[in-house]
Every structure is written in structure tokens, then in C-alpha cells.
């Protein structure tokens, strides 16, 4: 009900009963007007765009790249955790995801994205849901909470080194060429669903793709968006991710803004308050970062065709955003 009609209603009630009550109009005036946080965020002064990829709100896009050496000069095609059986190693602040949270036991994430303290002064989301689980946010807390709700989830792709993203993109192009496509066609097709080296959120170490278990216990390993969207586990994630500081980077409604197709499995950790604001206002990551930092005028990089020749032949079949 609008405040004005509530005040009018209360005033008529008061005049019909007792004049000893405080004037309702005075009580109403003490109530603050509701704040439109989305409009406020849109009006806020633009902030400097972070230059450190460790910033949770670093802007990576088709135009803006992550330095090749971030966060380590990784030479492994997979990640610091790629060797099966190798002891977990820390590299910079990357941690190996424990096997019980990992689909293939090779994922690495920055420690903050895997598990962080929930913000002390922010305990409820805009839709009145509890922030975090046991005082923690990040992928681990979300998977734990999903399990408590009866959904089995795993991470199947976390941090990717620059070298791996390069090989991933090249591998998809090579697969198209092997089918007799022209190079122009192959590049156009792969560009719609795969990031060039330097331009993948996976290189930040704060992003992971999720895989869910079906009722029979087997993990769904296809890449059909509708299958994801219709699964109870991923519906739970879509409704709860913001509680853990996570956002779906490429959603169905923002394919134009990101220039990438819908990826209901791809989540990025941005922190609880940013995730809640984006969920509340219906903004994609790209929209929010442009709002926060202003329009990105970085010219899109020209990619030399020689960089598309894979130096290592990929042996996997994962999507590669
Ligand atoms: Zn992804």
C-alpha cells in the first residue's frame, strides 16, 4: 500500500475514534521513504576500474584482458592441481579444491572464492534470505548448503591458466576446421561461446562451472542449457547463489550485453553485497561493472591468427568460457 493512502486511511480511523491518540500524520511522517537502491547505484559516481585482477570486481570482458602472468606464470595446461595424485599445492592464493567438492579432482580456485567469511554487517539478502552458511560464503558454503537441501553439486572447472585458455580456444577452432569449416566460420562460431586467452573469467580464479547429480546419482555432463535450468539442483543455485556472493555471469536475459550465450553452469564469486545488488536489480555482471566503472572504451584486441595454432593439443571436451 502506498504511504499516502495508508495515512489517509489511518486519519479517517483516528477521527472516528479518539482524539487522545497521537496524530497519525505525525507518525507517518517519521517513517523514512523507501530507498530505491538500484536507482541510487545507477546515480552513484563512477569508480576507478581496478587494475589488479585480484579485485573481486575486476572487469574482464571481450575487450579487457587479464595479464597472462596472473596469478602465476603457470605452464600447466590445466591448473596447479591438474596432476592426479599430486599433493595439494598452493600457488599464490590458489587452493586445490578438495575431492569432495570437485567433479574430476583437478580444480583450483582462489582461496577467497572457495571459502570466505560472510560480511559481519550483512546477514540478510534483499529477499530476506540468510547470507552464507555457518558464517561463510563462497563455493564451498554454497555446495554445503545445497547438500543440506538435498542437492549434490560439484565444481568441474575452476581456475584456468592463460596457456590453458589459449589451448581451449584453439582446440574448439581446430575441431571446427576438422569438420571442413572455413577459418572465418570457425572463429565466428567459437567466439560466441568461448573466450580468447586473457579474456576468460576462469583466469581470475574466482569462477567455476557447476555440475549437478541427477536423482539416480549420476552427474549430468551435457551442456544443454534447458536441462540445467530445469534441474532442481540448478534451480536451487539460481535462487540461492547470491546468498554466497556468487552470480551467474551469462544469463538468458543478457546474451546481448555479454555477447556470450546463456551459461547456467558458470558462476563467479563477487562477494555477498555485490551479488545481492545484482540479483535485486536484475543486472548481469557486465551491466553492473559498466554501471560501477562507466562505459568501457577499451578497443577490442585484434587477435593474430597465428595465436590460434594450438601449441598443446587439448584432450578434453569442456566448454571454455
Ligand atoms: Zn565457465
Fold and architecture overview:
The chain has 321 residues and is an alpha+beta fold. The chain has two domains: 1-34, no CATH class; 48-308, Muramoyl-pentapeptide Carboxypeptidase, domain 2. Helix content is 33%, strand content 9%. The strands form three sheets. Strands 5-6-8-7 form a four-stranded antiparallel beta sheet. A two-stranded antiparallel sheet has the order 1-2. The chain has a two-stranded antiparallel sheet with strand order 3-4. Helix 6 packs across helix 7. Residues 157, 202, 209, 266, 321 line the site of zinc ion.
The set of bound ligands, ions and cofactors reads: zinc ion
Poorly predicted runs of 5 or more residues: 1-20, 73-77, 84-90, 302-320
Please report the number of helical segments.
Answer: 12
Radius of gyration: 23 Å
Q: Examine the coordinates and then state which fold CATH places here, giving the name of the CATH topology of the largest domain.
A: Muramoyl-pentapeptide Carboxypeptidase, domain 2
Taken in chain order, the helices and strands follow as HHHEEHEEHEHHEHHEHEHH
Judged by helices, strands and strand pairing, the structural class is: alpha+beta
Residue-averaged pLDDT: 80
Strand order of the largest sheet: 5-6-8-7
From the 3D coordinates, which CATH architecture of the largest domain would you assign? 2-Layer Sandwich
